[in-house]
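TL;DR need structure tokens for one chain.
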Amino acid sequence: MLVGAASFKALQRLDKQQEVEGQHVDPGRAKKLLADFTAEYVDDFIDSMEATKINKAKAKDLAKSEAELLYRRETGQES
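>> reply
TL;DR here they are.
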């Protein structure tokens, strides 16, 4: 659930970033932004739950992969 929530929030944030800039973010930059956003959300979720038994690095990797998959599905582009 953590991975799905973090990747979904990251994709929402990327969409908002594109709205602010008034254009689509190129796939390379989108991948970087998604990685940053998912890592941030994983940290926030884990810290807010005070979950000490969750491996943050593994959760971040899984969330990044899921966010990239969602991005490819939404845009039809490879990231």
